[in-house]
Amino acid sequence: KAGVTQTPRYLIxxxxxxxxxxxxPISGHRSVSWYQQTPGQGLQFLFEYFxxxxxxxxxxxxxxxxxxxxxxxxxxxxxxxxxxxxALYLCASTATSGSxxxxxxxxxxxxxxxx
Amino acid sequence: AQRVTQPEKLLSVFKGAPVELKCNYSYSGSPxxxxxxxxxxxRLQLLLRHISRESIKGxxxxxxxxxxxxxxxxxxxxxxxxxxxxxxxxxxxxxxNKLTFGTGTQLKVEL
Lengths: 115, 111
What we know:
The complex is a heterodimer. Chain A contains no helices and eleven strands. Chain A is an all-beta fold. By secondary structure, chain B is mostly beta strands. Chain B is built from no helices and eleven strands. Chain B is globular. The chains are: A mainly beta, B mainly beta. The interface between A and B is medium-sized, with 24 and 21 residues.
């Protein structure tokens, strides 16, 4: 099976702009989660989608949003970018049945730099 | 609320020495605990989870509910074990789940 893919891998934006990141989960996985990784805060949960519905949300401002499509692909959007949004954004897909139940498989991440 | 604590940012050991990476958690319900590893220039990957009770690459971890700990151990460290290790907790809430990560421990195995 192909792994989780994320596009783009690198992105440079300026303050005030908005950005959309994309994630394609492992085939058959219906749950997609997003995490922000920074040197100061570590890995922090943003939100989780399952069957096009947001199931869980972390403690991030409303500028961070996401969605999931019927093919389980997911996007996250950050509006009005701030310098502090510079981070590695990780996507993970979760098996919801079988031997890998509840195991999250991570993508390589999108490195966002806000100037 | 759930919390995962990894007290050591960096752990340096010699090859062949025992390794113990500490992890303590705080959660009011029944947690599922994981260890994830990130090797240099590779993506984050699952090392082991407490429910499987497996030994992966010589590593083991036992969930101690009394001490709320899930320490990762290996009797003899190898150079290829050098990596960043994250302890994580999964709490099933509202029909979904999320991972709460510790801050990670950088393991350096020296020759």
